[in-house]
Specification:
Helices cover 31% and strands 31% of the residues. It has 108 residues and is of the alpha+beta class.
């Protein structure tokens, strides 16, 4: 940091410190934001949105090249996931295969 302060001239250290504080403040604000539909996969079906997480259904491909899901066939699922913020990153956790109740009461 000393070298950077010298490279920026007098007051350079204060300038860097002010910007770091601003970036950290923006990052902290982002951590507090709820997960939104924009944070979810494009084809996700939102079931429940809370302030700290969102529960959604998603159909997935299995990765087996011989499976029809990889060639415009029907995907597998639906599977239930919970999306949540870990710092300023949205992560997701697998909750299992969706039940009939999940799909029947929340059908579009």
């Amino acid at each position: 940091m000393i070298g950077l302060g010298i490279a920026l001239g007098l007051g350079g250290r204060d300038y860097v410190a002010e910007n770091i504080d601003e970036l950290l403040a923006v990052r902290e604000q982002r951590r507090q934001e709820p997960v939104t539909e924009d944070d979810l996969p494009e084809d996700a079906h939102l079931l429940e949105n809370r302030s700290s997480s969102a529960v959604y259904l998603e159909y997935r491909t299995c990765g087996d090249e011989s499976c029809s899901c990889m060639r415009d066939g029907e995907k597998h699922g639906p599977y239930k996931y919970r999306a949540y913020r870990d710092g300023d990153t949205v992560r997701r956790g697998y909750l299992g295969k969706a039940t009939d109740t999940d799909t029947d009461t929340n059908a579009e």
